[in-house]
Amino acid sequence: MSEDSNVRFYFKGPPNQLESEAAVVLPMKGGVPVPELEFGNQRHALRLLQSGSDEPARSLRLELPSDTSPGTIEATVHFGGKSYPATIVVEELSRIVTEPRSVSLSCLPGSRPATTVRVTNAGNIRQQLEPQQTILMRHADAISRGVRKAFKNTSGDLISRMIVLGEELSSEPIREVRFDIKADSNELAAGDQQSVEIGAEIPRDIDRSVSWKGSLVLFRQAINVTLDM
After folding, report:
1. Do both 79 and 123 map to the same domain?
2. CB–CB of 84/7 below 8 Å?
3. Dmax of the chain from CA atoms?
4. How far apart are CA 112 and CA 28, in angstroms?
5. Per residue in 146-163, pLDDT tens?
6. Cβ(147)–Cβ(173) under 8 Å?
7. What predicted TM-score, i.e. pTM, was given to this entire model?
């Protein structure tokens, strides 16, 4: 297979969505072999992207494992009996997956409820946990009430309605609630997972006639928390 060093493909993006402009004409008609990219001992099929069904591909897409470290990789694209040099610039991917995606704590004023979630670092950078957080919590239906008033009972453009929504939320009761977050490690490497315990210190004078809702941050990922009184 001959190599054309005058043409170079340049892929850039997060590891699961790297894209390069087509440096050569890549026909899309049937029988054309799928282009491949090779580096080290790895070989990956490339996806051809086009504007129309009868037009040549305008770009190529490469998907690497999500935990591929950020950095530059020199590679080779194989297509149509020829080889072309390629440069891959892998950017940072911050992606945290929690199971479940939101949590509810059954509690009473003055109690210390806790629950456990499973956290996976599905990105390619190390993430840090903030073990103590104090967050503002509102009545669980505060946002839906504000949206109803701003978008159903208010005339005007979107900006005017968003102003009304902000005013509604600012008039809602809020409470500060402290959360303690415990894990085996406060760092989570790319591809790793661990169990995380979420515990709350419920104020003794909190209104127990309603549920409260807010958002915690686990390894830079927001997770909704509901206090069911």
Report:
1. no
2. yes
3. 77
4. 62
5. 666 667 766 667 777 777
6. no
7. 0.77
